[in-house]
Amino acid sequence: MIEAKHISKWFGPVLAVNDVSLTVERGDVLGFLGPNGAGKSTTMRMITGFLRLSGGTVSVGGHDIEADPIAAKAMIGYLPENAPAYPEMTVTGFLRFGAEIRGLRGRAATEAVERAIETCFLDRVRHQAIDTLSKGYKHRTCFAQAILHDPPVLILDEPTDGLDPNQKHEVRQLIREMGRTKAIIVSTHILEEVEALCSRVTIIDRGSLVFNGSPAELKARGSSGDVICRVQAVAAGELVQALTGLEGAAAPEVVADTDGAVTLRIAARGRQAGLAGRVRKVLIGKGWDFDELHTEEARLDEVFREITLPDTVQEGQA
Ligand SMILES: Nc1ncnc2c1ncn2[C@@H]1O[C@H](COP(=O)(O)OP(=O)(O)OP(=O)(O)O)[C@@H](O)[C@H]1O
Ligand SMILES: [Mg+2]
Predict the structure, then answer these.
(1) Which of 135, 127, 125, 98 is nearest to 113 (CA)?
(2) Which one, 54, 70, 121, 208, has least CB within 10 Å?
C-alpha cells in the first residue's frame, strides 16, 4: 500500500532525509522512530505529498504521489505534526469541511462526521471553536479529520503526543484496531507504544535508516542473552557449582538468596542462542524446582540509545 523507494530531501544545503526506503502493507502498523530532527516528519510529509521529493519515488495504493497525486492522496489519512486546524471553525464545522473536501456530500458527509466524532470522543466539544479547545481535544479533532473518509492508508505523526494517559490508551486501541485492515505509519517517541502497537519498526537517525525489523528483533539486538533463574530449596553454592562451565556462559552470579529461593544470573558469552535451554536441562536433570527461568530482555529505550547515539558514547556505555 505504501512504497517509498530511496527517498531523499534537501533543505538548501541540509540533507534531512537520505535514501530512505520503506514499504507498508495492509495489516501492518509501522512504528517510525528516531531522535528529534532525525527526519521522521519530513519523510511523512513526502509520503503524503505535502513536500516534494528531492530524490526517489513514493507510491500509495499503486499511485505515484507526484505523477498522480489526487488518486494517491484520496487513499491517505494524515495527522500532521502539531495537529494544525482552522482555529475559528467549530469541531463539527471543521470536520464537515474536511468531509466535503474528501468529496463526501449530504448524508454521507453527515454520517462520516458523526462517526469520526464518536470514534474520537468529541461529542462534548462539537460546537466549540477549535481555538478554544484544550491541546488534547484539538489533537483529537485533527485525528478525526484524518479518519473521516475511512482511508486505507494512515500516516500519523506522533498521534498520542499531548494526550492524557486515558486518551493515549484509547488512541492506541483505535490504531491497533484500524491496523488490522489498513496500512499505517505511526511516528512516536514513546517506546512502549511500539510494543503495544506496531508490527514493524523503522528507525532513522540523521536522515538515514538505521534499523528495520520487528519489535522483537529490535529487542533481541540489545539483549545481552543473560539468563536469570530462581530455584527453590537448593543451597546457593551447590547451584552455582552445577551451573558453572556451561557452554557459552560465564560463571553464575548469585543475585538474591532469600525465602528459601536463590536467584542467579548467568551471563552469556558472545551471542550464542539457547543458554536458557541448557540451564533448564541442568535444573531438570537435578530434579530442582524453579519458578523463574528466562533470557533477560533488553529495554527498548536502551536499544534505541545504542542504535542512535554516536559511536564514542556507545563505547562509553558498554
Ligand atoms: N522546511 C524546512 N526547512 C529547512 N529545514 C527543515 C525544514 N523542515 C525540517 N527541516 C530540518 O530537517 C531535519 C529533520 O526534521 P524533521 O522535522 O523531519 O525531524 P523529526 O524526526 O520529525 O523530529 P522530531 O522528533 O523533533 O519531530 C531537521 O534538521 C530540521 O531542522
Ligand atoms: Mg517530527
Answers:
(1) 98
(2) 70
